[in-house]
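Changelog entry

Holo records now carry the ligand SMILES as an explicit input line rather than a separate metadata file. Below, a converted record for adenosine-5'-triphosphate, shown in the new format.
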Amino acid sequence: MSAAAGEPAADVPAAELVAVTKRFGPVLANDAIDLAVAKGEIHAVVGENGAGKSTLMSVLYGLHRPDSGHVRREGRRIRLRSPADAIAHGLGMVHQRFRLFPELTVAENVVIGAEPVRRGSVDRAAARRAVEELGERYGLRADPDARVGDLPVGVRQRVEILRALYRGAEVLILDEPTAVLTPGEAARLFEVLRSVTATGASVLLVTHKLSEVLAAGDRVTVLRRGRVTGRFDTARTTADELVRAMIGRSLATAAPPRGRGAPPRGPYALEVRDLSVRDRDGVARLSGVSFGVRPGEIVGLAGVAGSGQRELLDTVTGLRALGHGDSGEVLLGGAPVPRGRDPEVAYVPEDRHGRGTAAEMSLAENLLMGDQRRIRTARFGLSRAAVRARARDLVERFSISAASVDAPISALSGGNAQKAVLARELSRRTPVVVVEEPTQGVDVGAQERIHALLAEARDRGQAVLLQSSELPELRALCDRILVMYEGRVVAEFRGEDATDARLGEAMTGAAGAVR
Ligand SMILES: Nc1ncnc2c1ncn2[C@@H]1O[C@H](COP(=O)(O)OP(=O)(O)OP(=O)(O)O)[C@@H](O)[C@H]1O
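Structure line, unchanged by the conversion:
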């Protein structure tokens, strides 16, 4: 805990939002919100999906102009017409959706728009040095010459943070930074954030993970339906108190029901046999991976990012075809998967904004994707009314909060977009469901609901392959957990055996944990 936590505000806040109100048409996203961030603190902002957190952060970063209210920086009122103004005032943002150029290197991405110049051209050596120095200072290592498009999500995030620090951010706004990280990476991120706040800078942290808020934050502001419903000192509050401020009730204490009785037997719905794949450069990404998932079973996939999960799931879902130098097979119901996406495999991707949804299409259209055949009428093709009726049904059943099914899906908050993808995929009732990070960026109430939906899918007899970086999530839902390390499945755990220590050991390839 920093010293700033409980002290009287003798110091001027680093940044303040004063009576900020912001509407989107009929939606009152922020309703006279006051929030002050002290110097040197980690200030968390929590709330349900759609509570108005991202909107508020966007106001502070000059992306949205408030309808009323204003922003102060070190006690002085400032005018933010754009992110460029925010940056000039020492406000930096790390977005939930990274804004990096995949074709450029780490160093190029970090300095872009503020390139060091020498004799009239970009000084690449200086850019690389800057990245290395910042990395050193804050423990944020990233290879300056790596192409960003080749990096795993966790490292891309580091590049975003480096970019903000390079531009002199003294108030760093992070929108769900750990949603994409493994527990180990998240712990390292908080070490980084601590070294940032130790220099007197401040961190504003939007997150859904209350354990994280309590462990790493100094103070927390709770939003609900656009208003502040609580301000707490993390040293003097509890998760339950935060949940009540967030959703107006406590969470049900019971975990979702696990598979009852004996584990399912019989043939696999999904089977991977001795799968080995190589990347473009011929580097082995998967080596001899074999496992199966039976109907009525949830099999978890754990591992630090980049252990081969991406390649495995891409192959299983048919997004990646086996090519020259690859071997092994993927069987669905005993038969090899056809080329391309298989209609029998439902897929909830990690990147819901890219692979999961088509941003410019409406919620109704997004809910229909991949399932046109089922509601096409014989004579008239797709009926608009049927599309909308089906969408309304899913919105209701999956508690998706949206102004209208005709609005573009990009207007939905992150958590609601996720529920929409889940609604679409789970409702297809396919024999196999592949799910990546289902509760990333999703509020606690919706997490509860999503876990129950996955358990229902299992109880209906669907075979679920669940990749998650949340070990408690895997433990709560899975019949078995497979651990990947360096392209291999190195361990398998059931029930009580799946302790943090044992999973962690296997995830880092420690000897003894390997099967
Ligand atoms: N550009 C926009 N156009 C229309 N409505 C919007 C827009 N941005 C946000 N909203 C609406 O404003 C409300 C607040 O959304 P916001 O994204 O700020 O919530 P959030 O707390 O960040 O949610 P999440 O946790 O899901 O990310 C929601 O009802 C959302 O649908």
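Spot-checked after migration. Residues 183-198 form the longest helix (16 residues). Residues 1-9, 375-379 have pLDDT under 50 and may be disordered.
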